[in-house]
Amino acid sequence: MIQSMTGYGKATIKFGDKKINIEIKSLNSKALDLSTRIAPLYREKEMEIRNMISKVVERGKVDFSLWIEKDTDSTATPINSALVENYYNQIKSISESKNIPLPEDCFSMLLRMPDVLTKVDAQELEEEEWNVVKAAVNDAVEHLVDFRKQEGAALEKKFNEKIDNIENLLKSIEPYEAERVAKIRERITEALEKTINVDYDKNRLEQELIYYIEKLDINEEKQRLANHLNYFRETMAGGHGQGKKLGFIAQEMGREINTTGSKSNHAQMQNIVVQMKDELEQIKEQVLNVM
Question: Residue ranges of the chain with pLDDT lower than 50?
Fold first, then answer.
């Protein structure tokens, strides 16, 4: 089954007082274009995260985000109450000994004193926490792949419909081919007899007609187009990673349809060719999204 390059995956886990969120999104791209936004605590693991994603995702423009949410109580910067008390006692002692009145807003001044708002030491990533986060990253990537498979199944159904339509349109050309040959013969003969009004060698005319009709013959184009349609189906059944190959096959299908149109020389046949081009154009648009 083919896979789409469009996908979305998310995983959320709790570890201690932290809620860790992982999100991964992808769109179509010719190669793997991976951008990451990772919380500072886990940035040392960025290369490992990139390797985990690239082994599975292969192609697409991918955005990966990993961020932390903490409980309100744990995110507030703690106040060093012992240090506040020490500063206050010192200020009060100086005020009494020097007969200097205490400031009106003494508490605000105390909060601005050095080290009253305790700095939180930089955290180190523990192995236990990383193992939990790593498992969550894998979950998010698996959800992305599942999403891509669902989108791929929808694309495959659409492609099969379009291939069937082109195949049916190709068959509908056949009745007009014999009619076209008769009309060409009639038109040329009539032109010679009435318009030009000259005697002509009927044997030579037959030879020229045969040569002319052979140049307009589309049997080879029809056969090659039929082969390309079958090959497109076989390639889809080959699994994911076939997007570029499907694109090349679609190009070859376009060449055969265009040549058929240029050789048609018949209004109904050319209308059918236009319909085939429309079906193929829809395939080409969607095949860009296949991994």
Answer: 121
For 7-73+125-147, CATH number? 3.30.230
> Domain locations in the chain?
7-73+125-147, 78-111, 152-287
With a CB cutoff of 8 Å and minimum separation 6, the contacts of 3 are 145, 148, 149, 151, 152, 240, 241, 290, 291
Q: How many CB atoms lie within 10 A of CB 44?
A: 12
Compute the distance between CA of residue 158 and CA of residue 251 in angstroms, rounded to an integer.
18
**Tokens in use for 114?**
């050095």
DSSP bridge partners of 69: 19
* Two structure tokens written together for 66: 């990993």
- C-alpha 86/C-alpha 173 separation (Å) is 97
Distance of CA 188 to CAs 193, 262, 265, Å?
A: 9, 20, 14
The predicted structure's pLDDT at residue 195: 56
Amino acid letter for position 88: Y
Q: What is the pLDDT of residues 183-241, one digit of tens each?
A: 777 777 776 666 555 665 666 666 666 666 667 788 889 999 999 999 999 999 887 77
Q: What's the Cα-to-Cα distance from 46 to each of 51, 62, 63, 166, 265, rounded to whole Å?
A: 9, 14, 13, 47, 62
90 vs 179: CA distance, rounded Å = 111
> Which residue, chain included where needed, has tokens 């045969």?
210
Q: Where are the beta strands (DSSP E) in 16-153?
A: 18-27, 32-38, 60-70
Taking CA 217 as the corner, what is the angle to CA 211 and CA 218, rounded to the nearest 5 degrees? 165
| Chain centroid, CA 57 distance in Å | 11
pTM assigned to the model: 0.71
The order of strands in the sheet holding 60-70 is: 7-15, 18-27, 60-70, 32-38
- ∠ CA 272-273-276, rounded to 5°: 90
- For residues 4 and 265, the answer to whether their CB atoms sit within 8 Å is no
